[in-house]
Amino acid sequence: MTTEPETQEATPDAAELIQPVLADLSNLVASVPPEAYDQPTPCPGMSVGDVRNHIVGWLTYFAQALADPSGEQPRVDPKETRAPEDPTEAAAKVREAADSIRTSVAAGHADGPVKLSSELPGSAVLGMMVWEYQMHGWDLARGANRPWNPPAAASEASLAFAPNMLSDEYRGEGKDFGPVVEVPEDAPALDRLLGFSGRDPDWAPQVV
């Protein structure tokens, strides 16, 4: 899930929320054993190993973008970047990116525009990341049969942010998002966010 928004507003606390989400994500990545890498995930066509690569590749890219918001320095190709095979080393990559993001935010780099494939407000990039890594954390956890409980405040913030950036053109066959999955209004915030993002909170691997 990596789609740049048309609407460029984000929740004001995204800079604070991204750090606990990434802290939880690093712990999750560290807990996933190599024997789980071939298992399916709720993300269509992606195995646990694919999701690990996606997480590390794009997180590294976002960290580099926030460190160099004008885009003057070379960046990794997130689609070609691979997570280290060793879970501890992969988790270290997540923590390294989180530390870089913290430094960039403290330096004010998210206060102005950040150049991705197009120029976006830094606040929108952070809001997108809070949403992105809750979703892919869940993909990874569900595929590897691990717990995933990001802060409820992050899910609530993403529920406010996501509808402003996700239009119907990004939903459907072969696109980044599936149709909305109906979830009870009183369901936990993460489940409601999953449903909005085209995920079924009850997804489980098929038993053969």
Automatic annotation (TrEMBL):
SUPFAM superfamilies (alphabetical): DinB/YfiT-like putative metalloenzymes
Basic and acidic residues bias locations: 74-85
Region (Disordered): 69-88
Residue ranges constituting the Mycothiol-dependent maleylpyruvate isomerase metal-binding domain according to the UniProt record: 22-141
Segments passing through the bilayer: none
Cited NCBIfam families: maleylpyruvate isomerase family mycothiol-dependent enzyme, TIGR03086 family metal-binding protein
Protein name: TIGR03086 family metal-binding protein
Native source species: Spongisporangium articulatum
